[in-house]
Design goal:
alpha+beta, Multidrug efflux transporter AcrB transmembrane fold, Alpha-Beta Plaits, 4 domains, 4-stranded antiparallel β-sheet, 16 strands
């Protein structure tokens, strides 16, 4: 039915299609932001924490220990053969070596694009083939260089009443195994103390009479001091593995080792031709803590582990071990890398809180708008929580680099938030409604803000091309 021309018309509000996109999708946008913040807060507790980022340096270190062999002999029979053998490893750029009395270190440098895990396997294969050509007394170790190669915790074991050889046994047999099996611990290195051993002093006259050489003594001790199995024993339809222990623990047991038999068939025992007494291994390096001789335990973490979690587990384990130590034995930490991480996290926290406080004070003083101050305060934690999702997806960790970047980025986020809010308030004061003011502010400030944000990125962009340890 047609209305007469003079009839009153109902003025309908403008269609929702004419509203700005952020007004039409305000609820989904709010839901998405809150969801991302919750996901970021959850993932923040799963991101590894370390002092430095997880970096695979293109370097593999081969360490060789061969007692007290002279330098010239080490160079000929160990260092040079290893250098020549590793030249066949793909991707090798440079080889450097340091040879000293009884030890050698061969450093292999590769391209930064090399897969260091695969490269380490190839180096291990070369070293395994070389092992037969090296002296039987040579001990060879290979490892790739990462930030996890350095210890994260260190403890000192001291005592005024317990001897150093007993401290070494406590550290090696009581503390080290319990710490080494914790989650995230790669290895525990024991340094210092006096390593207990038995000293065998042959009598030259008796050796000559019995026709026995020093090599015969060494071979007899090596052949006897072991645990072996004679095989399986079948009994009542069951197979039982038999074990025979020939381990020696006292000088008397060592003296009962049969070196050889005489022509008359009489066994010649080690105690008949030599003196056996408890002793300690020679000490070439003195280790002290607080001016006292001590035993040090250095804890290394696994490359992908969390420094804070590993440190907390080790501290808890040490506190459980402490009451079981003999009276007079003191164990104290002398190095703790987790304190650096705690300080870095605290600095980021302080930067965020200070940014929130300053931005809120500035907005309240100059704009006199508590609502705008609240919005600016929410922008910073929302941005950081969403950044945690990116860190998790890219496999990054909380370290000095990422935490420092977050602390620096807080200033940029606050600056952009203040500029946008100030422009919105300006349009509101001009008489525009809320959404109209937001739309006008975004139209005016989007391109300038993008430019101001990209500018520092462009300035630091050339740093991406830096290679080597610096990059």
């Amino acid at each position: 039915m047609d209305l007469p021309p003079d009839s009153p018309r109902v003025v309908r509000p403008s269609s929702k299609r004419d509203a700005p996109w952020f007004q039409r999708f305000s609820r989904p946008i709010l839901f998405l932001i809150v969801s991302l913040m919750l996901v970021g807060a959850y993932l923040a507790f799963t991101i590894p924490v370390a002092v430095f980022p997880n970096t695979d340096f293109p370097r593999i270190v081969i360490g060789i220990d061969n007692g007290v062999t002279p330098i010239d002999q080490m160079l000929v029979i160990i260092t040079r053969p290893i250098e020549e053998a590793v030249n066949s490893v793909p991707g090798l750029r440079k080889v450097q070596s340091i040879t000293s009395r009884g030890s050698a270190e061969v450093d292999l440098f590769f391209d930064w694009n090399s897969d260091m895990i695969l490269t380490l396997q190839r180096v291990d294969a070369v070293v395994a083939r070389m092992q037969a050509e090296l002296p039987p007394t040579a001990k060879v170790e290979t490892h790739r260089l990462t930030f996890a190669s350095f210890p994260i915790l260190g403890y000192s074991l001291t005592s005024d009443t317990i001897p150093q050889n007993r401290l070494w046994e406590i550290a090696t047999y009581d503390i080290k195994p319990r710490v080494n099996r914790l989650d995230g611990v790669a290895s525990v290195l024991v340094q210092g103390g006096r390593v207990p051993e038995f000293q065998v002093t042959p009598d030259p006259a008796r050796l000559l009479t019995a026709g026995i050489t020093v090599n015969d003594i060494l071979e007899a001790i090596r052949r006897t001091n072991l645990i072996d199995s004679p095989g399986l024993i079948e009994n009542n339809h069951q197979l039982v593995l038999g074990l025979i222990s020939g381990q020696v623990r006292t000088p008397e047991q060592i003296g009962q080792i049969v070196v050889k038999s005489s022509t008359a068939g009489i066994p010649i025992r080690l105690g008949d031709i030599a003196k056996i007494a408890p002793s300690v291994a020679p000490v070439y390096t003195m280790v002290t803590a607080n001016g006292k001789p001590s035993v040090l335990l250095s804890v290394h973490r696994q490359p992908d582990s969390n420094t804070l979690d590993v440190a907390n587990e080790v501290h808890s384990q040490i506190e459980e071990i402490r009451p079981t130590l003999p009276p007079g034995v003191h164990i104290e930490p002398f190095y703790d890398q987790s304190t650096i991480v705690h300080e870095s996290i605290a600095s980021v926290r302080d930067a965020v809180l200070l940014g929130l406080l300053l931005s809120s004070v500035i907005l309240v003083l100059f704009l006199r708008d508590w609502g705008s101050s609240l919005v600016a305060g929410l922008v910073i934690p929302a941005t950081l929580l969403i950044t945690f999702i990116v860190l998790k997806l890219t496999g990054e960790s909380f370290n000095l680099m990422t935490l420092g970047g977050l602390a620096a980025a807080v200033g940029l986020v606050i600056d952009d938030a203040i500029v946008v809010l100030e422009n919105i308030v300006l349009h509101r004061d001009a008489g525009q409604r809320r959404f109209e003011a937001i739309q006008s502010a975004l139209q005016e400030m989007t391109i300038p803000l993008i430019g101001s944000t990209i500018t520092p990125i462009v300035v630091f962009l050339p740093l991406i091309s830096i290679t080597g340890v610096t990059g």
